[in-house]
Automatic annotation (TrEMBL):
Its main location: cytoplasm. It comes from the Eukaryota. SMART domains: LRR_RI. It is found in: Cytoplasm, Cytoskeleton, Microtubule organizing center, Centrosome. It holds the Pfam family LRR_6. InterPro entries: Centro_Cilium_Assembly (IPR052116), Leu-rich_rpt (IPR001611), LRR_dom_sf (IPR032675). PANTHER family: LEUCINE-RICH REPEAT-CONTAINING PROTEIN 45, NY-REN-58 ANTIGEN. GO terms for cellular component: centrosome; plasma membrane. Residues 289-348, 382-569 form a coiled coil. Keywords: Coiled coil, Cytoplasm, Cytoskeleton. The keyword Cytoplasm applies. This is LRC45 protein.
């Protein structure tokens, strides 16, 4: 029935908790449970209390294989299942590859010392298990403490990972907000550019209309010049109209100059705002780099603390060696006392033998036999004591050699760890210095670009001033022409032919001025294009710098994660060394022999 039930649950996707307490599951049930754990992806809690699964080794191995392949189960209850040290070893092998189980209850089983060690070793590779209950299993206290330390380490690691994830989320939100602000600023800038384009098109239309009006006025002047002989008054009116139009053109030129000055001021303001924003970002980056340097200092302090702990452990090893020497001295003293006691007993036996000879002469033969037997037993005892003393000396020599080898290995490992930590710190510092150098170079390049843009703006302003000077020259020329016209009005009747020639020359000059104005308009358009290209290049450079800044922040986060991982590994190694030394001292034959005595 359990097999059919579990076979049906293999494809179920709604059941989250399964309780099979006290159902006397056997080999077939354990195999079905293993298949269920392989295929089911919804069950998060499984209770198997009082089922004696540990008695069926094959079925329990299938169950452990299913647990190894499962990545969804979070809570498992295996209380009172008669699991021995072999079953605990299979569970440990399954937990090395399982990445989802958080709580495991193994109370009131038969795990023992070997099973406890296997579970402790599996916790070095399993980083997700938070709670492991081992009461009532005959596991030594030092192993239980080591298991608690490993579980606390897993909990601290998960808390650290959650904090790091929260920081990453906060930073991603900030980056998104900055991107939105940049997009808004870019859209505003594009709107201003579009408005400027519309205003330029309107000004071009107005100038074209005015040019057409000027052309019409020139045509009228040509017709007036042809009818000068008959209509001198009409020529004067046409000249007045031309003067008014020239004044209008001067006003238009002034308006264009003002518009150009306004556009240049707007561009300069935007460039100043962008520079201020770039300076603020650089300040933030420098602040982040200072925070990273502070973190590196903290990590160095932690490495120093680990070195101090290693020194303390070395002192403890030295104390253990002293204790070993003291125990050897005590054993030697005890051996000397035992020999003295043997001599005293021999003397007592000799005295009793002499008394018995004097008192009981008749029983000499029987007493001699008893004394020979007693002497043989004493010789046997002496030989046993000598053999025990020799074995103790051999054990002491072995313990000394093992302690020396372990001390050498521990010192070598400490030296390797220190050298690796120093090399990694040097590499990180070099990498950070290179990043700072690159950041300073990029900042200098951005400043150079800003200076170039300022120079271009200054050049444009100089060109605009030149254009204004040229327009002033045109106005002066127009004033001179007006004076010439006044002087020639007095000589209208006498110098009509000369007036015709001068008017033709004036018309040619006006055409040349019109062509010059067209050239100036083309230059203005080219300058506007250059300004647009420079602004687009500056935007692209700013976007590239923002991308580089985000990459540097990600690299800093990765380095912080690596530093935390190295710190955890060093703490694990220190705890493993301490646990190994404590286990060796508690489980050594010297400790057991002294406790028996």
């Amino acid at each position: 029935g359990v097999k059919v039930l579990l076979h049906g649950l293999c494809s179920n996707t709604t059941v989250k908790s399964l309780d099979l307490k006290g159902n006397n599951l056997r080999t077939m049930g354990a195999e079905a449970l293993g298949k269920l754990l392989r295929q089911n992806k919804s069950i998060r809690s499984l209770t198997l209390e009082w089922n004696s699964l540990g008695l069926w080794e094959e079925g329990f191995s299938f169950f452990c294989q299913g647990l190894r392949a499962n990545n969804f189960l979070q809570c498992l209850d295996l209380r009172n299942n008669q699991i021995n040290h072999q079953g605990a070893g299979e569970l440990a092998m399954a937990l090395t590859q399982n990445t989802s189980l958080q709580e495991l209850d193994l109370r009131w089983n038969n795990i023992g010392l070997l099973g406890g060690r296997a579970l402790l070793n599996c916790l070095h590779s399993n980083k997700t298990l938070k709670r492991l209950e081992l009461a009532g299993n005959g596991v030594p206290g030092d192993i239980l403490k080591a298991v608690e330390q490993a579980l606390d380490h897993n909990q601290d690691r998960e808390a650290f990972l959650s904090e790091a994830q929260n920081q990453v989320n906060i930073l991603s939100k900030e980056v998104l907000s900055l991107k939105d602000e940049k997009n808004k600023q870019f859209m505003d800038f594009m709107d201003t550019v579009d408005k400027q384009k519309e205003e330029g098109a309107r000004s071009e239309k107005m100038s074209a209309a005015r040019v057409s009006q000027l052309q019409e006025a020139l045509d009228e002047q040509y017709s007036i010049m042809n009818s000068l002989k008959t209509k001198l008054q009409m020529t004067e009116a046409a000249l007045a109209l031309s003067e008014q139009k020239v004044h209008n053109l001067g006003d238009l030129l002034n308006a264009m100059k003002q518009e150009q000055n306004c556009v240049a001021e707007c561009h300069s303001r935007e460039l100043q705002q962008q520079k201020q924003k770039g300076a603020d970002r650089e300040g933030r980056l420098l602040h982040d780099l200072s925070a990273a340097s502070e973190k590196n200092l903290l990590l160095r302090n932690q490495v120093d603390e680990l070195e101090r702990k290693c020194k303390v452990q070395q002192d403890q090893l030295f104390q253990v060696k002293q204790d070993l020497t003291n125990t050897t001295a005590e054993l030697k003293l005890r051996a000397v006392e035992a020999e003295e006691r043997l001599e005293m007993e021999k003397r007592r036996f000799k005295q009793s033998f002499e008394d018995m000879e004097s008192l009981r002469v008749k029983e000499v033969d029987r007493m001699t036999q008893q004394m020979e037997a007693s002497e043989r037993s004493m010789h046997n005892r002496i030989q046993r004591l000598e053999a025990i003393r020799i074995s103790l000396e051999e054990e002491l020599s072995q313990v000394k050699a093992a302690a020396l080898t372990e001390r050498g290995q521990a010192e070598e490992e400490l030296i390797k760890v220190r050298s690796q930590a120093r090399l990694e710190e040097q590499q990180r510092l070099e990498h950070l210095e290179e990043k700072l150098r690159l950041m300073t170079e990029s900042r200098d390049e951005a400043q150079n670009c800003c200076l170039k843009q300022k120079e271009m703006v200054a050049e444009a302003q100089a060109k605009a001033k030149q254009l204004s000077l040229y327009a002033d020259g045109l106005r002066k020329r127009l004033d001179e022409l007006q004076q010439d016209l006044d002087s020639k009005e007095e000589e209208k009747v006498t110098e009509l032919n000369k007036v015709k020639v001068e008017l033709q020359e004036q018309i040619g000059r006006l055409e040349a001025e019109r062509t010059a104005q067209d050239g100036l308009r083309e230059k203005i358009a080219a300058l506007e294009r250059q300004l647009k290209a420079l602004s687009s290049n500056h935007r692209e450079a700013l976007l590239d710098k923002e991308g580089e800044i985000s990459l540097l922040l990600e690299k800093l986060r990765m380095k912080e994660a690596e530093i935390s991982r190295l710190r955890e590994e060093e703490a694990q190694r220190a705890s493993f060394l301490q646990n190994a030394i404590m286990a060796y001292v508690q489980g050594s034959p010297l400790g057991t022999h002294s406790s028996r005595k």
